[in-house]
């Protein structure tokens, strides 16, 4: 399987290892509720383009911490397009 990016920092976020360790958390009800509550606090505004945010982006990942164990300052509301750009899936 080929990675989307060769950037080692991005690889940590988008590579297979990352996906396997966080996948179940992203599918959990707990994450959905946490993410939705965060987006509510930020008025569903994408921080990068000002359109409607639908994603909660982690500015950093702390080993061993669950996705919903982060402070607001570590999170960024993003729309779908900007989220993909941040993860190197789309080129800005
Ligand atoms: Zn955006």
Q: Could you walk me through the main structural features you see in this protein, from its secondary elements to its overall organization?
A:
The protein contains four helices and two strands, in the order H-H-H-E-E-H. With 92 residues, the chain is mostly helical. It has one domain. The chain has a two-stranded antiparallel ribbon with strand order 1-2. Helix 1 (8-14) packs parallel to helix 2 (16-26). It is globular, with a radius of gyration of 13 Å. The relative contact order is 0.18. Residues 1-11 have low confidence and may be disordered. Zinc ion (ZN) binds next to helix 4.
Structural features:
92 residues, disordered N terminus, globular, binds zinc ion, mainly alpha, two-stranded antiparallel ribbon
Q: What does this entry show, briefly?
A:
This protein is mainly alpha-helical and about 90 residues long.
Strand content: 5-15%
Tell me the number of structural domains.
1
Q: Please tell me what the overall shape is.
A: globular
Helix tally equals 4
**Low-pLDDT segments:** 1-11
Please list the strands of the largest sheet in the order they lie side by side: 1-2
The whole-angstrom Rg is 13 Å
Count of strand segments = 2
CA(first)-CA(last) distance: 24 Å
């Amino acid at each position: 399987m080929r990675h989307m990016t060769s950037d080692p920092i991005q690889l940590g976020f988008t590579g297979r290892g990352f996906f396997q360790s966080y996948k179940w958390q992203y599918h959990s009800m707990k994450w959905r509720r946490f993410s939705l509550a965060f987006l509510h606090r930020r008025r569903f505004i994408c921080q990068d383009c000002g359109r409607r945010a639908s994603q909660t982006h982690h500015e950093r990942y702390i080993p061993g911490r669950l996705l919903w164990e982060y402070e607001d300052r570590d999170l960024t509301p993003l729309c779908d397009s900007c989220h993909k750009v941040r993860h190197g899936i789309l080129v800005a």
